[in-house]
Specification:
The complex is a heterodimer of chains A (about 170) and B (about 210). Chain A has about 170 residues and is an alpha+beta fold. Chain A is built from six helices and eight strands; from the N terminus they run αββαααββββααββ. In chain B, strands 2-1-11-10-8-7-6-5 form an eight-stranded antiparallel beta sheet. In chain B, strands 3-4-9 form a three-stranded antiparallel beta sheet. In chain B, about 15% of the residues are buried. The chains are: A alpha+beta (about 170), B alpha+beta (about 210).
Chain lengths: ~170, ~210
């Protein structure tokens, strides 16, 4: 009987770990002050984030958005058209000290800004972005978290600024 | 002991499997919902701006489907039922109404290849002419090394001016743009160069 209890007790955390691994984890990795500085790593299970988001009310920010509200429908349609369009580099701006590149690769919109001392990469899963904008014009943050489950095994955000480095990746 | 360990491992695998299957199923459904890509090469609208003085280069490459979505989804005060509302008279008597432009265009089309406008002012020359399938606009000002080349296909002008009333049929214009290939606008002056063209390459030529 004791063996059965022990096996059950061991199975529970392993099952929980497997569930978290199967549903995805967002890794927030912050490094300040170079190799000798502070290093913080926070794993956030997407399932937990999704549950938390599902309890949060969907904010109705239509009034606050003012005139921008009327462009939400357009933004949604443009995102959908982008998802269906072929891959390619959409925008490239090169200036003396800065380069901005926006490219579509598969279901991801990649934004890369390279400056004199900084380097920023943002990968936007188009599915999540389209789902954030509800058809009624409201913003649904929970949909963004749900959409992240389809965008696993990639870096969402990476910022390098001198000795500081922030990286949020999905596993 | 072996049986209980196996039972525990089995439980873990079942839980992971069920959750994993859910994730895979959701991904598969998402993939199935995506339409299959067109087998024909899609058209891309390219904009290239080079500012020599600022060492600045801008490249924009957009699939026409995205341009179409942006135009169709524009707010109702700009586009209504697929038509752009145009009021050309608000600045006074110098502007033409869309109806007047349609009449003029009809007459010009009937005239065939001809020079429509020719203005010489100092060292600046402006010429608008129809040559074959394109309407050419040429502005030249050698003192400022300025040169503007605009080649608008006749069919595109037809599409722009095809509607009735004070509106432009966006869908007709997009349809025409889809079949259009090559330069639409080319502007060169001493400080900058702008080129707008359509082709079937995502990267655009001459990057």
């Amino acid at each position: 009987m004791l063996k059965l209890i022990l096996a059950g007790a061991a199975a529970m955390p392993i099952a929980a770990g497997a569930t978290v691994a199967a549903t995805g984890v967002a890794w927030v990795d912050v490094r300040e002050g170079g190799p000798q500085g502070t290093h913080i790593v926070v794993p956030v299970p997407l399932l937990a984030a999704e549950m938390a988001a599902s309890f949060a009310p969907i904010p109705d920010i239509r009034e606050e958005m003012g005139e921008a509200r009327q462009h939400l429908g357009a933004a949604r349609k443009i995102l959908e058209a982008l998802r269906e369009s072929p891959d390619g580099e959409l925008v490239r701006v090169e200036e003396r000290d800065e380069t901005v590149v926006i490219a579509k690769e598969g279901d991801t919109l990649r934004v890369h800004v390279t400056g004199k001392d900084e380097d920023v990469t943002v990968n936007v899963p188009l599915e999540s972005a389209a789902e954030v904008i509800r058809p009624d014009g409201r913003i649904d943050p929970g949909a963004a978290v749900r959409g992240l489950r389809h965008a696993r095994f990639q870096t969402l955000v990476e910022v390098r600024d001198g000795d500081d480095h922030v990286k949020i990746s999905l596993w | 002991m072996n049986r209980t360990v196996l039972a525990g491992v089995g439980a873990v695998l079942v839980v992971a499997g069920v959750v994993g299957m859910g994730a895979v199923q959701a991904r598969t459904n998402g993939a199935a919902a995506e339409p299959t890509g067109s087998t024909g090469a899609p058209a891309w609208l390219h904009v290239r701006v080079d500012e020599h003085g600022k060492s600045s280069r801008v490249r924009v490459n957009l699939p026409l489907t995205v341009v179409e979505a942006a135009l169709e989804a524009a707010p109702a005060k700009i586009v209504d039922k697929g038509r752009i509302k145009i009021d050309l008279r608000h600045d006074g008597d110098h502007d033409l109404s869309l109806a007047e432009m349609r009449r003029m265009w009809h007459d010009l089309k009937e005239a065939g290849d001809t020079e429509i406008v020719s203005v010489e002012d100092g060292d600046e020359t402006v010429k608008v002419a129809r040559k074959g399938d394109v309407v050419q606009v040429r502005v030249s000002k050698p003192s400022e090394k300025e040169e503007v080349h605009v080649d608008v296909p006749v069919n595109l002008v037809d599409a722009v001016l095809a509607g009735t009333g004070d509106s432009v049929d966006v869908k007709a214009v997009i349809r025409e743009l889809r079949s259009q290939r090559g330069d639409i606008v080319r502007v060169n002056d001493s400080n900058s160069a702008v080129r707008v063209w359509i082709d079937e390459s995502a990267a655009g030529e001459g990057r």
